[in-house]
Design a protein that fits this description.
The termini are far apart. A three-stranded antiparallel β-sheet has the order 1-2-3. With 197 residues, it is mainly alpha-helical. The protein is built from eight helices and three strands, in the order αααααααβββα.
Length: 197
Amino acid sequence: EAKMPVARAIEEFVAMKRRQGLKPGSVRACFNRLVHLPQDISLAELSPTEAQALYDRWTGELAAASHRALLRAVRAFFAWTIERGYLAKNPFASVKPVGKPRRGKPQPRVDEARKLYSELFRLAWAGESTAGCLLVQILLGPRSSEVWGLRVRDVDADGMRLLVAADGGKTANATRTLAIEVPELRDLLLHFGRGKE
């Protein structure tokens, strides 16, 4: 099986991830990382030297966080090929990650945050649902997919709680209840829910 083409092994690996219950977006991200591997060679043709050369190329093309994530993904893929008995050794096992990922994202200043907060509420009350969704994300912290999956009935206890359901989350354990402590958000969510099932 070491003669199996890399492309076919990737398809099998991604199909296994799908069967394990990964969300479609996570499956797509997994596949998108693995296509950085040469597709037209067999598993056995990728030597540790070539693996190092590939990683060196990625470090020149991608940001540190990206090439480090890519390295983790290909290591996991080749660990799976060993479990399946396709290979005896992971060609990326001795590749060392380089570079330091940037920490955090630029944060708005207090005045900027107040302006954004005010503008988002203005837009949301004017009917811009994306502004309302962004407010829920900023103030309560759920993921985009979780916010887009919300229903009227998820705003509970007179607007005091928001139920985030597993079907919008990243994993099956994503169901949780968030306290809505900002009165303006509570009023907005109750307003959007009025007259809807």
